[in-house]
Amino acid sequence: MNKVRVIISAGGTGGHIYPALAIINKIKEHEPNSEFLYIGTHDRMEKDIVPKRGIPFESIEIYGFNRQHLLRNFKVAYHLYKSRKKCRKLIKSFNPDIVIGVGGYVTVPVISMAHKLGYRTFIHEQNSIPGASNIYLSKIVDKIGISMKSSIDKFPKDKVVFTGNPCSEDAIKKEPMDKTKLGLTPNKKLVLIVMGSLGASTINNLMVETLPKVSKESYEVVFVTGKQDYEEISKNSFPSNVKVVPYIDGMTGLMKNTDLMVTRAGASTLSEIIALRVPSILIPSPYVPNNHQYMNALDLVNVKAAQMIEEKDLSSTTLINKINEILYDHNQLKEMRDNLVSLGVNDSGELIYNSLQDLIERK
Question: Fewer CB within 10 Å, N side or C side of the chain?
Fold first, then answer.
């Protein structure tokens, strides 16, 4: 590709937005003068995250279909109609070489209108169980990138490329974080606990009960609460080998010095775990569509690359026992790291870039 014009759309959660940004970074790496337009929702995370990175941003007002309150879908249909009209105007004005969707219902009017106008289209699926938007769009797009091999049967096989998740390539490039910056001991094993926002309060409350029990253990723990809960949780007393923080900038840098991670099973997090070969205990969020985090976790558990505790089975005792069982067993840690290798795609961004290049050259 020479200089290219790219429209990219993704929205709602970091699991969609950060892979989209990783794709933008990869294209810029090859073609620094390329031009981008990001189309996102008017009221979700991307409206704040994307403009801060100097990427031109346009928003559309659109909502997901509501299965519980069917009457509300009249409003959804109305905004879908309006958003298609706006997308038509934006796409024709920008005249892209390619249009990319990276998940979330915002991609439906963007990709479907681009297809109708005759532009090349590419979508990327991060999860083992595809989202409804990508299932719908898979029928009309030119090519589909998938992060997990288990989702290959969910799409038309002649369109699918196993690319992995582009966040993994960004993780590999990150410099390791010096543990002493967090007041940690360099030669002690580290457990990193981070749950994200979905259902975090349930887990955070459990950690307040659990973490005092590791006071006599030889390892250290970093517990990332999330900014929303930090003030309340930090009022509690924790042992000296436990560090409680609201957020870590450059989390993948710390993951490179982590011996065991306790986390949800979001697609981007798993891509980083796989890329950096971090043994993990996965606690899938039960609050997501189609229970897709559970299915994501199974991809690792089935090849003994991680262990899983479902939230319904989670207790202070089960978690401490599982952490100690893994962390004090050198062979189990090594087995997890070795098995993660088979799942990794270290050049995901490059594979996606090559797929986009192929589509553009077919114009």
Answer: C
